[in-house]
Amino acid sequence: MKTVAIIGTFDTKGEEFAYVKARFEKLGINTLTIHCGVFDPQTMPDVPNTEVAAAVDIEMSTIVEKKDRAFATETMTRGVEKLLPTLYANGRFDGVFSMGGSGGTTIATAGMRKLPIGVPKVMVSTMASGDTSPYIGASDIAMFPSIVDVAGINSFSATIFNNAIAAMTGMLEHVAPKHEDNKPLVAATMFGVTTPAVQKAQAYLESKGFEVLVFHATGTGGKCMEALVNGGFIKGVLDLTTTEWCDEVVGGVLAAGPDRCSAAALNGVPAVVSVGADDMVNFGPWETVPEQYKSRNLYKHNPTVTLMRTTAEENERIGHAIAEKVNMSIGPCAVMLPLKGVSMIDAEGQPFYGPEEDAALFKTLKDEIDPAKAEVVEMDAHVNDDEFAIAAAQKLIDLMEK
């Protein structure tokens, strides 16, 4: 019989968590309740708050005496973050479930993010709309909008809770067989405007006996790839699409953070890095483009995404950022430059065609990359040309075989 860990503030939301516990047990799922509130619970949990606080060497009396909500939330967050992986490693539960507002969501998801990819994770939250990246991070947490606050059992909350419970039950009881073909894993980055290149490279790598995981370079995709590389799952990185650096440097909405391109470099994982889609910064719908950029070269990619062409000066900064990461490499690395264009719309006759802007990017990379850290390969081809894609894939194979 499967067991679900239920994390929550059993002092303030005891009724709601008692309801959820009973529903799971009626469906044949064992429960492990974890109290992360400050005060005495309304129903006795399996793991008391004292154990959560003790995980970070703090006594509950200290938290109570401070009367500081921020300190209490921070402490219980760190406690759950440390305790939950230990409980999972000890076989105490198979999936994790929680409900809450901003505080409860912060506490529970911190622990969920520390669990392996594939462990069922469900968070019913008032925060499940808009930007949920602070809660989900690079994990696979399923967030359910609570619609109404997690405050009592009523016709709306009961419906939402039961849908979430059913989802968790389904994940626990219908586990798919593991996909184990023992092929070495390669990570590749793709954007809509570099799809032909990545698909060609993927097919080539798979024909050579590799399994290719493709990550959509939307900020979250880059973070997920970096996390898997840091986790030791990836044998090679085909980072053809580094466009997230455009958003990080210029201020777009799809940045992956300042650690992008770090994981392969610092872990010695063989990597081929390129400049796919480094001609564009991403914004939301047309009307959301910041006022200072309204006169720039803008392209309506779709109703919810507006692209802005990068300038030569911005490309120098982007190139500097990429070079800085490449120069951290302790393993084999190559940087490949497609001299005829870096995206589908950076080609002759296309709206972002910019030889001068591209040249600034290429020059920065050639000038700043340490040849002792990475080989720079220039090709008289477009990023989406078959010859470039296959050359990049073969270069990665060569690096992995060293």
UniProtKB/TrEMBL annotation:
It comes from Ellagibacter isourolithinifaciens. It comes from the Bacteria. Pfam families: UPF0261, UPF0261_C. This is UPF0261 family protein. Gene3D superfamilies: Uncharacterised protein family UPF0261, NC domain (3.40.50.12030), Uncharacterised protein family UPF0261, NN domain (3.40.50.12020). InterPro entries: Tobamovirus_resist_UPF0261, UPF0261, UPF0261_C, UPF0261_N. Residues 2-174, 183-400 form the UPF0261 domain.
